[in-house]
Specification:
The protein is an alpha/beta fold. Among the domains are: 135 residues, Leucine Dehydrogenase, chain A, domain 1 (Rossmann fold, 3-Layer(aba) Sandwich); 162 residues, Rossmann fold (3-Layer(aba) Sandwich), CATH 3.40.50. It is 48% helix and 15% strand. It binds glutamic acid.
Length: 439
C-alpha cells in the first residue's frame, strides 16, 4: 500500500512518511478484523476526499504585486466536518499539507469530539511583514477559501504562522463576503467574539498533561523534572507555562536561528513579551535575560540533557543523533507538541531504549480538542469560563492517553503509544466509513 501512495503522489516525502508510520502499525488490527481490509479502508483513507489549490494575489506595502499559493485538503469527513489548521510558512506545499491533514484524521478521531480531518495553508511567509500586509494577504486568501468552508462543512483554525491576528482578519473577510455571523466557521477566535477561553493555551497545556500521564504509568510524576522544549511559538510558550505551573522546569527555547539554554528556567513573562508582543527572536530573549541564559547560534536544542523532551517546533526537527544525545542525557519521556517532529528512526531509537514516546497525533490533540469545544460553544451561543474548558481538556487528554495505552495492550504492543494512537484512531474512522457505505 505504501508503494501505491508513493506512486500516486510523487515528490511528497512528508506525506509518504506520515502514511508509512500509520500503515506500519495497522497490521494487527487488519489481521483481527478482516472486514476492514476487505472494504479497502486503508486505501480510501490515504486518498483525500477533496483537494483545493488556489492563487492568492496581494499587494505589499511598496505596491508590488505578490503571488502565493493557497491549499485546503479536505481529507476525511466520516466523523464530522473537516477540521484542522492553516499553516502560513514558506515551506508549505501540497505534500506538507497532506501529511498534516492525514495526521489530523487520526488525531481528531482520538479526541472523540466528532470532527473529521483537514488541513490547509499557504507558502506565504508572514515573517517581517507589516500588519497591513498580513491583513491584505488574509483577505485575499479568504476571498477564495470562503466558498469551500462552513460550520458544518470545514472549519479551519491556526497552525504555524496563523494565530489570533490572522484568524481575526480571515473571520472579518468571511463575515463580509457571506453576510453571516457564522462563528463556528473558524476556531481560535478572540474570546470577545466567539472564541473559546483556553484555546490559545490548549495545545501546550494538553501536551504537558499527556506527558504527565505517561510518567504516571511509569510510577513517576512531573514536579522537579527538567524539560527540554524546542520552538518558541504558541505551543512552546504554553507548554512552558504548564510545566512551571505543575512544578517542572523548562530549560530551553529555540527558533531557526539557534537555541537558548536558561539554567534558572525560562522566564515566561519575558518570553511572551519578546515573542507575542514584539514578534522577536529567541536571541533577543537571551540578550535581555541576563547571566542565566546563553544563546547558541545554529545549535540543536537536543544537545541539552533533560528528563523530558517536548519537541514543539516543526516536522523532522529531532533526528537519530539527537535521540541518542537525549538518551545519553537520561531522558525518560518524549511528548510531541509539534506535528511529526521526530524522524521515524529517532522514534524507534527512543522506543528501543525504553523511553516513553507520545506521538503528536495523541499528545498535541489538546489544541484541536478545544477547537471542537469552541464549535460546541458557538452552536449553543455560549461562552464557557476558562476553568470549565481546562477541566474538559484534562479529561480529553487523559482519555486519549488511556485509549492509546489500552489499545496498544489489546493488540499485543504494550507501551507503544504510536501503534496505540494509530490503531485507535483508525478503528474509529474505519468503523464510521464502513457503516456509511462506499462514498
Ligand atoms: N493546527 C492544530 C493541529 O495541528 C490545531 C487545529 C485546529 O484547532 O483545528 O492540530
Amino acid at each position: 500500500m505504501h508503494a501505491e501512495v508513493v506512486r500516486r503522489s510523487p515528490a511528497e516525502p512528508e506525506f509518504h512518511q506520515a502514511a508509512r508510520e500509520v500503515l506500519e502499525t495497522l497490521a494487527p488490527v487488519l489481521a483481527a478484523r478482516p472486514e476492514l481490509a476487505d472494504a479497502a479502508l486503508v486505501e480510501r483513507l490515504c486518498e483525500p476526499e477533496r483537494q483545493i489549490l488556489f492563487r492568492v494575489p496581494w499587494q505589499d506595502d511598496a505596491g508590488a504585486v505578490r503571488v502565493n499559493r493557497g491549499f485546503r485538503v479536505e481529507f476525511n469527513s466520516a466523523l464530522g466536518p473537516y477540521k484542522g489548521g492553516l499553516r502560513f510558512h514558506p515551506s508549505v506545499n501540497l505534500g506538507i499539507v497532506k501529511f498534516l491533514g492525514f495526521e489530523q484524521i487520526f488525531k481528531n478521531a482520538l479526541t472523540g469530539l466528532g470532527i473529521g480531518g483537514g488541513k490547509g495553508g499557504s507558502d506565504f511567509d508572514p515573517r517581517g511583514r507589516s500588519d497591513a500586509e498580513v491583513m491584505r494577504f488574509c483577505q485575499s486568501f479568504m476571498t477564495e477559501l470562503y466558498r469551500h468552508i462552513g460550520d458544518r462543512t470545514d472549519v479551519p483554525a491556526g497552525d504555524i504562522g496563523v494565530g489570533g491576528r490572522e484568524i481575526g482578519y480571515m473571520f472579518g473577510q468571511y463575515r463580509r463576503i457571506t453576510n453571516r455571523w457564522e462563528a463556528g466557521v473558524l476556531t481560535g477566535k478572540g474570546p470577545g467574539w466567539g472564541g473559546s477561553a483556553g484555546r490559545t493555551e490548549a495545545t501546550g497545556y494538553g501536551n504537558v498533561l499527556f506527558a504527565a500521564e505517561m510518567l504516571r504509568r511509569r510510577g513517576e510524576d512531573l514536579p522537579g523534572q527538567q524539560a527540554v522544549v524546542s520552538g518558541s511559538g504558541n505551543v512552546a510558550i504554553y507548554t512552558i507555562e504548564k510545566l512551571h505551573a505543575l512544578g517542572a522546569r523548562a530549560l530551553t527555547v529555540s527558533d531557526s536561528g539557534g537555541y537558548v539554554r536558561d539554567e534558572k528556567g525560562i522566564d515566561l513573562e519575558l518570553l511572551k513579551q519578546v515573542k507575542e508582543v514584539e514578534r522577536g527572536r529567541v536571541q533577543d530573549y537571551a540578550q535581555r535575560r541576563g547571566s542565566s541564559a546563553v544563546f547558541v547560534p545554529g545549535g540543536s536544542v537536543w544537545e541539552v540533557p533533560g528528563d523530558l523532551a517536548l519537541p514543539s517546533a516543526t516536522q523532522n526537527e529531532l533526528d537519530v543523533v539527537d535521540a541518542l544525545n537525549l538518551i545519553r542525557g537520561g531522558v525518560k519521556a518524549v511528548s510531541e507538541g509539534a506535528n511529526m517532529p521526530t524522524t521515524p528512526q529517532a522514534v524507534r531509537t527512543f522506543q528501543d531504549a525504553g523511553v516513553a514516546f507520545g506521538p503528536g497525533k495523541a499528545a498535541n490533540a489538546g489544541g484541536v480538542a478545544v477547537s471542537a469545544l469552541e464549535m460546541r460553544q458557538n452552536s449553543g451561543r455560549e461562552a464557557w469560563p476558562q476553568d470549565r474548558v481546562e477541566a474538559e481538556l484534562a479529561t480529553v487528554m487523559r482519555d486519549i492517553h488511556d485509549t492509546c495505552y489500552e489499545t496498544a495492550e489489546r493488540y499485543g504492543v504494550p507501551g507503544d503509544y504510536v501503534a496505540g494512537a494509530n490503531i485507535a484512531g483508525f478503528e474509529r474512522v474505519a468503523d464510521a466509513m464502513l457503516a456509511q457505505g462506499l462514498v
